Amino acid sequence: MKRFIFYLLKMIAFCCRAFSPNLYKFFVVKAHLIQHVKFAGSPEYIDYTAHLDASGGLCIGNKVVISTKVIVLTHDWSFLVRVHANSVVYPSNQYQMAYKAVSIGDYSFIGAGAIILPGSNIGKYCIVGAGAVVKGEIEDYAIIIGNPASKIGDTRYIRELGL
User: Fold this and answer.
1) Does the pTM exceed 0.90?
2) Rg of the chain, C-alpha, whole Å
3) Element (H, E) at 121
4) Dihedral pair phi/psi, residue 118, rounded to 5°
């Protein structure tokens, strides 16, 4: 039933998008709250095509922008392939190994098509470039791009870059 309500709210948000940005944001946030995404404030914008997996814990900061086709993952079962390949008994803590929380700091921007992997922590005032694949700790004010994502600049000095 929760899944149905989630998709219903996203559909309502999509329909509201053309005439009321505030109503759009209201319904998108409500939809993600049903999926247990935690918000530490009010996001600036979350595109309705973004996939936010909160199964391992996801916290989104104040005034965060999440662009189109962004994927945020909080689970990864790939380690079981190695366990299976080596004919090892499944570890008793497999659920702790599979689920890792993700946090996105205040005023950060996540570009179109970016993928945030489990266990990542993106600091405040960060810019994640389109298509970047992010894993691990990203310090505050970082500008990151690429696969794997690497730091190319600092948002505190963006005027010096001519942007």
Assistant:
1) no
2) 17
3) strand 121-122
4) -55, 140
- Span 81-138, pLDDT tens digits: 665 555 566 656 666 677 899 999 999 999 999 999 999 999 999 999 999 999 999 9
Q: What is d(CA 54, CA 52) in angstroms, rounded to the nearest whole number?
A: 6
Instruction: Give CA–CA dist 163/148, Å, rounded.
Output: 24
Secondary element (H or E) of residue 28? helix 21-34
Distance CA 101, CA 5 (A): 24
Distance between CA 99 and CA 81 in Å, rounded? 16
Beta pairing partners, 65: 45, 109
Residue 146: per-residue pLDDT:
94
With tokens 């309502």, the residue in question is 12
Q: How far is CA 9 from CA 16, 60, 152, in A?
A: 10, 19, 37
Identify the pLDDT of residue 159.
Answer: 59
Q: Kindly state the helix (H) or strand (E) to which residue 42 belongs, with its residue range.
A: none
Instruction: Give backbone dihedrals phi and psi of 10, rounded to 5 degrees, phi first.
Output: -65, -35
Cis check: omega of the bond before 91, within 30 degrees of 0: no
Which residue in 82, 95, 142, 132 sits closest to 111, CA to CA?
132
> Which among 96, 106, 102, 140 is positioned nearest to 121, based on CA atoms?
102
